[in-house]
Amino acid sequence: MKLVRIIAGSCAIENETQALVLAEKLKARGITEMRAALFKPRTNPNDFQGIGYDGLPILREIQNMGLKTVTEVVGVRQIEKLYDYVDVFQIGARNMQNFELLKEIGTTNKPIILKRGFANTVYELLMAAEYIKQSGNKDITLCERGIRSFDDVTRNVLDIGAIIYLKQNTNYKVIADPSHSTGNRNFVRSAAKAAIAAGADGIIVEVHEQPDKALSDSKQTIGLEIFDKILEDLWNK
Question: How far is Cα 137 from Cα 172, in angstroms, rounded to an integer?
Fold first, then answer.
């Protein structure tokens, strides 16, 4: 039986020690793809924005450990600079309709994860993917990361119906982001199970050795103890 795809790591790389120690622990658990963002588009310009290109050697070290790097690209000019250090490009929710970026990323031969914008319809997500496809790249995984709602019980709403629709009506691989969709580490495990039950092919989840001290999205970041329970849920049934 094929394992559920699990991409894990901190919201963004914070420094070399943090990233490489976490990479070792993830690899020991069988993880083969690591969240490894160097740039973070943030609502508040005073929040941690990532370590930028200074993190390129860290990406190389993660690759040398045998892990694939999954890295968000936030601008067209970054693609060339990141290219040799990234195994999977991610287009984040805020850039889902950055059409020039979509067209340019479509000229690469890297796998692409396209996240749904938090105020976008499923149709708009599919049309964003079409921009990438028309530039030549068909290796696209769609990510349901939660949409904005009037309710504040969770940070966003994990749209289970969207996952079901995409799996029943398209040929795309679909993953879910239980971290951004809930915004609460206590909800991540249940949201991950719900997404897989709905038909998702995998999850992308924020994990940190010291989640309370994570520089980005600490409230929704889980520790290794909860992560191990998710692995039991999804891999060891």
Answer: 13
81 phi, psi to nearest 5 deg? -70, -35
CB of 147 closer than 8 Å to CB of 119: yes
Q: What does pTM read for this prediction?
A: 0.95
Tokens representing 10 are: 């901190």
Residues 109, 112, 115, CA angle at the centre, nearest 5°? 160
List the Cα angle 46/52/53 in 5-degree steps: 160
Q: How far is CA 81 from CA 13, 73, 92, 128, in A?
A: 17, 10, 18, 23
Check: CB of residue 228 under 8 Å from CB of residue 31: no
Burial class (CB in 10 A: 0-12, 13-18, 19+), 102: buried
User: Which residue in 12, 146, 4 sits closest to 70, CA to CA?
Assistant: 12
Sign of the torsion angle spanned by Cα atoms 164, 115, 112, 3 = negative
**Cα separation, 47 vs 39, whole angstroms:** 12
What is the Cα 50 distance to its own chain's centre? 15
Give start and end residues of each alpha helix (H) in 65-135: 78-82, 99-105, 122-134
The 10s digit of each residue's pLDDT in 91-132 is: 999 999 999 999 999 999 999 999 999 999 999 999 999 999
Closest CA to 100 of 72, 74, 138: 74
